[in-house]
Amino acid sequence: MATLARGGEERHEGGVCNGGRTEEVRWLRYKYTRKNEVVEALLATLRGGRNLLQLLLSFAVGGLLGDVFLHLLPEAWSMALEGGAGTHEAFTQVGLCVLAGIFVFIIVEMMASHGSGGPTSTTMKGTPQPTRKEVTGYLNLIANGIDNFTHGLAVAGSFMVSYKTGLLTTGAILIHEIPHEVGDFAILLKSGFTRWEATKAQIYTAGIGLMGALCTLCIGTSDVLGGAQVYILSFTAGGFLNIALVSVLPELLQEERPAQSCAQLLCLLCGTLTMAAVALMC
pLDDT tens string for the chain (282 positions)? Predict the structure, then answer.
C-alpha cells in the first residue's frame, strides 16, 4: 500500500511538472508570436513611410522641372531680351549659364562623394548608421537660397513701384513657393535630414530672400541687378535640373512594383501640373 501511495504521489508530481512546462511553452509561444506581430507592424509602418517619401520625391521632381521650364528659364530669357540682347544671343547666354549650373553641381557632388571617406559606419550591433548627410540636400539648399534671393529682389523692386504691385508680386511668389517648398522638404528628408532639421533649413533659406530685398532697398532700384539676375536665374535652373534628373530621379526609377511606379508617375505629373497652373495664374 505504501508503495502504491508513493507511486501515486510521483505521478501527481510529474503531472504538475508537465503542466507547468506546458504553460511555460504556451507563454513562450505567445510571447514569440506577439514579438513577431510587433516587428511586422513596425516593418509595415517603415515601408509605408518609405512609400510616402518616394511619392513626395516624385512630386518634387515634377515641381522642379515645372519650375525650371515654366518659371526660371522664361523669366531669364525675357530679362535677357529686355536688356538689349538679340534672340540668339539671349538663348546662348541662358543656355551657357544653365550648363554651368549643371556642371558645377555635378562637380561639387563628385568631390563631396570622393572626399567623404565612406557614407556609412557600423555600430556594435552591426547596424549601418549614416555618418553624413547626402550632399544633394546641401546643393538643394544652395539653389533654393539663390532662388529666394532673386524673389527678394523682385518683391522689394515691385513695392518700390507701387504698393499694389508689391502685394500682387508677393502673392504670386507665395503661391509659387508652396508646392516648391513641399518638394524641397522631401529632398532634404531623403538626404538624411530629420524633420526638424529640414524645417530649420527651409526657414534659413527663406531668410535669404530678406537679404535680396534689403539689397534692392539699399541700392534704391532693382534695375542695376537686372543683368545679373539673368545669370543667377539660369544658373539656378541648371542646379535644379541636376538635383531633379541626376540626384533624385535615378533612385525613383529603381522601383520594381508596378503599382508604386504608377503612383510615382502620377505624383510627378501632379507636381509639374501644379507649377503649370501657378505659372498660368501668375
Answer: 444 445 555 455 455 455 555 665 565 555 555 545 434 443 444 455 678 888 889 999 998 899 899 888 988 898 888 878 888 888 999 999 999 999 988 888 888 766 655 444 444 344 444 445 678 888 888 888 888 888 888 788 777 767 777 777 777 777 778 788 888 888 898 888 988 999 899 889 888 888 888 887 787 665 656 667 788 888 888 989 998 998 889 888 988 888 889 999 999 999 999 888 888 876
Residue with cell 509595415: 44
Q: Is-contact 151 144, C-beta < 8 A?
A: no
pTM: 0.68
CA distances from 115 to 75, 107, 132, 195 (A): 37, 12, 12, 27
